[in-house]
Specification:
The protein has about 350 residues and is an alpha/beta fold. The chain has ten helices and nine strands. The two termini are about 40 Å apart. About 40% of the residues are buried.
Amino acid sequence: MAHESTEGDTAPIVAATQGEAAPITAAHVVTEGDTAPIVAIDQEDHASGDGDSAYDSDQLSRYTDSLASSVKAYKFENGRRYHAYHAGAYNFPNDNPEQDRLDMFHHIILLGCDGKLHLAPIQCDGKKILDIGCGTGIWAVQMGDEYPSADITGNDLSPIQPGWVPPNVRFLVDDVEQPWAETQPYDYIHCRYMAASIQDWPRLVKQCFDNLKPGGWVEFQDYDTTCHSQDNSIPPDYKVAAMLSLLKGACDSIGRLLDPGPLLKGWVEDAGFENITQNIIPLPVGIWPKDKKMKEIGAFMTLQYTEGVEAFTLAPFTAILGWTKEEVEVFNVGVRKDAKDRSIHTLHNFHVVYAQKPS
């Protein structure tokens, strides 16, 4: 199957196999421009002191042990575990099921990016790299393996990253919206899937600009959770869309955007970056696409809803919207059911924007 990419404000179209659709066979997930490609439906499937003394060392040990203990003193609510450091800044769990979901989403985006860990045109060997909101650390670890001479730092509110990592990778527990702990500039800053996590996006983008070396690159990758379809197959009572609308309202009420993706390009332009490129990756929900890669993405996206919907909804709906746990559980039954309905051809857009700081 041919891969096709274009420059400009429109993306190549992936032909459908029904109706009067244009007979184009290209099926490349990553495209440049301001619109996402059309995703073909699989009709066959559709049918179905000095620091040297012992005292100083002991004091430092006690202090760092205390800090480590406070960071890991996780908060538990409704049977799920949440971060302790700057509690409430991130309203989703950090327990093992959520870590599995985050790693699954990493795989989804890796598929969407044709197996590339970054799209910014930077040679990462020997470079100083920051991964903002690194989550489980899977991206930073894979970057460390791929670029063994790079110096890679990942930061996050939760210390859930693995202990065994490549020697060129380290992790910090840090709130990226506070003054940054590191003061040395970076060659490349990566920021992915921070939806509903950031209060002041323009400030964060400006922080990235200020903390890059001249000529350095930044790359943002994030969601537009709006549900849309190419064939108007989404019904008015679609529970996935209803859940996302409620979640958006909850996040908006506390000043944390659920859908930063469509705004990334504008923020990057306003911060002073140049050589800006936007790619839009379509993320189907379900195994209805004809293209094999899109079908795989759709299968994993379905699992994001069937297995991950509790993580999306439990804390925001109870703590912000005032629902009971039982009400959330009953509502989520409908979300899971609709997410598995193969007659509904839902798509989300995932925006990738990369740009360069002037030299």
